[in-house]
């Protein structure tokens, strides 16, 4: 998430009520998660296991729960609870905005686009030209949709990320302030759910086609010209390259990368990166020929 203007380190520290190490005038442009953080942005870390990763990331400002040596050219925000204070940043710069209309006054709809009855467009939604949005589609704040997009009934774009920190007596949500971006010529089936990014974007690439009842988690990037069949579940922070085919009821765990022109056969479970130009099957997913050989060998063992 980029801030509406450049802030200095001292001002950010005042907003969240914490100490800082570095030049008070150190420039801060935004906040982000570690896998997509850019120079000038804040990242948070609250476990010693990940200190080095955060301190050596692209982040220029590290929100951390221990005073450590500050890397050259960076700054630190010292907090007793970085998770809480990262949420403070999100709510300060992108607070919840109530909408009093089915179509927000700030929504922009392109020429030739058709909105069927009971479509809901949140604040700052942008939809391109010649789209067809069927009845009862809900599009949350800040979603961006390109040209020639079709979205079928019951689909929801932009719900919160499924991302929680376990406290002693409750689960504390990491507040979502990212977006969903749907590029040109995408088709999304009925009753799909695509969550917005925590601080970045969940993106569906140009020309991709989604069947019905698909779940796509926060900050996932689906490439161009992908086919995804019904009941596929994709966790957060997944990268799916171009021309990938995913058949029905495939499950993909968070943080993995699917190479270009991969095909994943039905009911497979993906728990690690998959190399490009291959067909995969099974749980855990392996190259389909190898997996089918294993199944054949197991059948022979009974004889």
Automatic annotation (TrEMBL):
GO terms for molecular function: N-acyltransferase activity; UDP-3-O-[(3R)-3-hydroxyacyl]-glucosamine N-acyltransferase activity. The keyword Transferase applies. Its EC number is 2.3.1.191. Keywords: Acyltransferase, Lipid A biosynthesis, Lipid biosynthesis, Lipid metabolism, Repeat, Transferase. Pfam families: Hexapep (PF00132), Hexapep_2 (PF14602), LpxD (PF04613). NCBIfam families: PRK00892.1 (NF002060). InterPro entries: Hexapep, LpxD, Trimer_LpxA-like_sf, UDP_GlcNAc_AcTrfase_non-rep. This is UDP-3-O-(3-hydroxymyristoyl)glucosamine N-acyltransferase. GO terms for biological process: lipid A biosynthetic process. Residues 26-91 form the UDP-3-O-[3-hydroxymyristoyl] glucosamine N-acyltransferase non-repeat region domain. It comes from the Bacteria. GO terms for cellular component: membrane. It comes from Paenimyroides tangerinum.
């Amino acid at each position: 998430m980029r801030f509406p203007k450049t802030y200095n380190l001292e001002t950010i520290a005042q907003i969240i009520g914490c100490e800082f190490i570095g030049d008070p005038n150190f420039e801060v442009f935004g906040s982000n998660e570690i896998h997509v953080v850019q120079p000038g942005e804040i990242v948070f870390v609250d476990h010693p296991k990940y200190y080095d990763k955060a301190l050596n990331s692209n982040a220029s400002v590290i929100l951390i729960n221990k005073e450590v040596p500050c890397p050259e050219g960076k700054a630190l925000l010292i907090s007793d609870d970085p998770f809480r204070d990262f949420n403070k940043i999100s709510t300060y710069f992108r607070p919840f905005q109530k909408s009093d209309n089915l179509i927000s006054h700030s929504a922009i709809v392109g020429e030739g686009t058709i909105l069927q009855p009971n479509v809901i467009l949140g604040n700052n939604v942008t939809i391109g030209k010649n789209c067809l949005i069927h009845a009862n589609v809900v599009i949350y704040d800040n979603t961006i949709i390109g040209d020639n997009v079709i979205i079928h009934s019951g689909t929801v774009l932009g719900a919160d990320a499924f991302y929680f920190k376990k406290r002693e007596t409750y689960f504390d949500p990491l507040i979502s302030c990212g977006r969903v971006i749907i590029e040109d010529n995408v088709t999304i089936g009925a009753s799909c759910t695509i969550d917005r990014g925590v601080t970045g974007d969940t993106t569906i690439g140009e020309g991709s086609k989604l069947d019905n009842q698909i779940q796509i988690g926060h900050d996932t990037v689906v490439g161009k010209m992908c086919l995804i069949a019904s009941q596929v579940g994709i966790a957060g922070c997944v990268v799916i390259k171009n021309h990938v085919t995913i058949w029905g009821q495939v499950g993909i765990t968070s943080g993995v990368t699917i190479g270009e022109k991969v095909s994943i056969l039905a009911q497979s479970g993906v728990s690690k990166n998959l190399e490009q130009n291959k067909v995969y099957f099974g749980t855990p997913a392996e190259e389909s020929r190898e997996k089918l050989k294993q199944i054949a060998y197991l059948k022979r063992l009974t004889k």
